[in-house]
Structures are given as C-alpha cells and as structure tokens.
Amino acid sequence: MNSRPLHLSVVIPARDRLDVLRRVLDGLCKQELAPEHFEVIVVDDGSSDGTMDHLREQAGKTPFTLISLQGGGEGAAAARNRALAASRGEIILFLDADTIPSPSLLRRHLELHSRARGAECHLGRIEMSAELMGPKQARWHELRLAAGDARTGEIDFRRYRTANSSMPRSALLEIHGFEERLPAAEDLELAYRLARRGMRFFYHSDTLAVHHHPLRLEEYLRKGALYGEAVARWHALQPEMGTELARRFGLYDAGLTPAERRRYRLKTLLVNGASVRPLTVLAGCGRRIGCAASQRLLRAIYGYHLRRSFYGSRLQPGV
Q: How far apart are CA 225 and CA 268, in angstroms?
C-alpha cells in the first residue's frame, strides 16, 4: 500500500445502519474529488445487520481506498478514535453512516482547508431526507445551522456537530481525539477542547449532505435521556464547566444570571412530571397536523427528559 499521506480521510462510525450506509458509500463513489486523494475508514461498532460482511465484499470494488475496522461496540467516540488512529490524511472529514454526501462535498472541504489560516474546522449543511419529513418523524430540526458571521461564515464552537465536518488530523491528535467516557455529546465536548486551543469554526451552506435517519417520537425522547446521562458524566469529569453546561443544555447552576435562572424555573414549572405526558400527546398531535408550535413543545419535552436523566445520573455512584 502507498505510504504517502493522503489529502483526506473520511471517518464513518456505523452500527446497524447498513441500509443507509450503502447509500453513503455510493455517494462517496460519485465524488468530484479524484479517488486517489481520499480514503474512507468505516468502523463497524458492533453491528448485527451484516455491516462488516458488506464492507469486506466492497474492498477493492470502490474507486477509493476503503478500510473497514471492527469496533468493540463502545460508542461513536471510541469508533472515531479507532479510525483516527488508522487514518493517513492531513484532513479528517467526519460523516455518519446515515449522512449521504453530495458529489461536491469532499472537494469543497479540501478547498476550504487549502485556504485556511491556522487551525480551522469547517461544517457543511445537513438537510433531512425528503423521505423522512412525514408527521411520524421527530428529528426534523436538530441539524440546522446558520452562519454567525454572514461575511466569513464563522460560528460559535458550541454549535459544532460531527457529521459533515472537517479539521486537521494534527489538531485531533494533539487533544487525543474524542472523550470515550461520554455516551453522547462527545462532539460538543471535543469542540470545547479544540476551541481552547485556538481552533475556529466555520459553516458553509453550499457544502451539502443529506441525513436519512428515521426517528420516532419515543426514540427522540430516549435520546434526550441519553444526553442527560452524558452531560452528568461530562460535569463529573470537568466540574469547572458547570455553568457552561447548564447554559448549553438547559440545566440549573448557581453561576447562571438571574434572567437565566428565571427561564429555568419557568421551564420546570411548565414541563414537569405531572404535565409531560399530556404535553407529549399534544405535541404528537400538533406534529401530525403540521402545527409549527409543536416543534418548540417537543424541544421543551426533550429538555425535561434530559434534565431528569442528568439529575438522576448525578446521584449514581461513579458518575
């Protein structure tokens, strides 16, 4: 195998998403960027749907170098770190197993880094799959971004998410990659550490990928509980982040401003153990009839499950 550095390494963690992963790999086969300029590393993180068998079948058939690694089912953070250790590209581009790249995506990320001044992270636009915009889907708003600075496209690092993002491999290695003890929010925790080292974050609406991940309402709310557990672990690892985490995830902290504490009390007054069930039914009905207010209500319910899990997890030993 050629040992010279590649320009780009595409990193994809995968678990039981083979149906969409096939579409992701097909999209990578159709890239405008010449295949000798990138490699694709897929980590099968404990799938039971034949993902690894499919990857082995594809070895040698794709126009680019396809590397398949077996993960230990330890989560996306560990899977990405495993891929990072095996990568050869100067630039790491993160995709998910359900994030389908547009033909220009890889070329655009390399172009952006070729003009970078210092350490930069570039995020592209993610649109929800048109097939999943029906009323039974709960994840229609999560991935939307907008440039904080309309002229440069720079955004606050707190808005970082991994899918369709790229950054120098050297920057990731300097901070030892993702925090594997977090079951979720590992992307945001990574961004905090990168920002402290001076990395800047930029958003580009013309660099497109399509997200195809069916998510029912109950799965969406379980995701909120998972994030609550992850933030509790993050707080235990970095207690000095308490106020920052409270602001980002809608929690309480003594360091919040009076206005922020009032907003927190209002949220807990409106969405609590007694009201959450009927509000969930109401939000589901609103979603089915296309009521825009149902989106805000579902976010509030998601926040309740996150808070409940956060405070419950902090009471557990070892968290």
A: 16
